[in-house]
Amino acid sequence: MKKRCSIIILASACVLITLAASACRGPYRKLEYYGGRGPTSYVFPGEFEKQQAIWMQWPSGVYNAGSQPVNHVMISIIKALAPYIRVNLISQSTEEIKQIKDLLKTNGFTGTNVHYYVINHLSIWARDVGPIFVKDRQNRLNVVNFGFNNYGRGGDQHYINVEGQVDKLTAQLLGLPVINTKLICEGGAIESNGRGTMMVTESVALTRNPGLTKKQIENEYKRVLGVRKVIWLKKGLAEDEPITSGHINEMARFADPNTILLAQVLPGDRYANRTSQNSYLRLEENYRILLNSTDQDGKPFRIIRIPMPPTLYEEANNTGEIPVRSYLNYAVTNGAVLMQTYWKPGRSNTLKTTEDQVKSIFRRVFPGRNIIGINAENVNLWGGGIHCITQHMPAN
Fold it and tell me: Is the whole model's pTM more than 0.70, yes or no?
């Protein structure tokens, strides 16, 4: 499987704008700010709550040069989102913006709900390096400036430096306060119920921050995100191990403050190969953890199992690894859920039946939202999915 790669592109100047952002009411908790500024409190909104925009990062040429081009996936997502939500698209230059507009027009997009921003970036992973928004007691949006170390893999320091600045540069562009922290974290690694509880995997958080204890990491999450409770799952999908060490967004998501969607390897795939067997064991261990977990108020969660795409587990790429494919790497926004779909003519009826079942579950747990299928396999083959290349911005 191709990994999220390090690429070198010339830096671009930022376009300066100002947006006034305020926030809705939420459950705040007073937390000490360990920087001398006195007590500060935040709330980390759930993704299922009202939004004002979705951020995306336009891909550089490397993402379209090979056999897995991602531009058509980006265009499909933009066209699907624009009727429901403002799309804020990060580009490298004003010249590229013109090219993007022409490309969208050529592909039938005639909408006006896409807005362009010039911010230096090197990847498409807006969820991981883009702005993570929290709300403060003054009803303002703030951006948490987490550290970035290329998913714990190190590598090209220029790539790490550029990607690690996307969130901060976006905040500056919007005129939003920045909450600084030395904690290393990507947006795809954390999931919030919007009421004070978050989920994270030990395999990611501990690997990213080897000099910190689990308790220290948890305390820092509480400080910068305002959460009151952290649910620690063990490991993510085995397929995701060499990519992110196991991001939460591939396997466990909050559909609402009380409902958790948890991936499930179906019986016919549990022993298809060692990778699917490991994912099965990991998911069942996480299921037991969640069954014994409660929210910030001590109440148990409703847990709904979401099947993993069947039969596809037997498909390995030329390195012998199995690409990460999951129905839980969806993006939810106002009025719509963008769901990854895999069935096409020639693939099994079992896959089609499973996909229809997942769509039915999504309709129940996201009432009032249209479920829109997107073929995002080329993004999957780069190591991510729809959720990985979108970052939501909570509503005013």
Answer: yes
How much is the pLDDT for 4? 56
Alpha-carbon gap, residue 328 to 111, rounded angstroms = 28
DSSP sequence for 62-111: GGTSSSS--HHHHHHHHHHHTTTSEEEEEES-HHHHHHHHHHHHHTT---
Using one digit for the tens of pLDDT, what is the confidence trace for 357-393?
999 999 999 999 999 999 999 999 999 999 999 999 9
User: Which of 96, 146, 98 lies closest to 119, judged by CA?
Assistant: 96
User: Token pair for residue 157?
Assistant: 């320091």
Dihedral sign of CA atoms 393, 26, 37, 295 in order: negative
- Half-sphere exposure (Cβ direction) of 236: Cα atoms closer than 13 Å: 32
Secondary structure element (H or E) that encloses residue 19, with its range: none
Q: Quick one: 331 exposed, middle or buried, by C-beta within 10 A (0-12, 13-18, 19+)? A: buried
Tokens standing for residue 200: 């994270």
According to CATH, what is the number of the domain 42-394?
3.75.10.10
Nearest to 79 by CA among 119, 112, 50, 57: 112
Q: What are the boundaries of each domain within the chain?
A: 42-394
What are the residue ranges of helices labelled H in the chain? 71-81, 94-106, 126-129, 157-163, 166-174, 202-208, 214-225, 241-244, 274-291, 349-365, 377-380
Name the stretches of the chain with pLDDT < 70: 1-40, 316-320
Q: What separation in angstroms does the CA of 84 have from each of 73, 90, 335?
A: 18, 19, 6
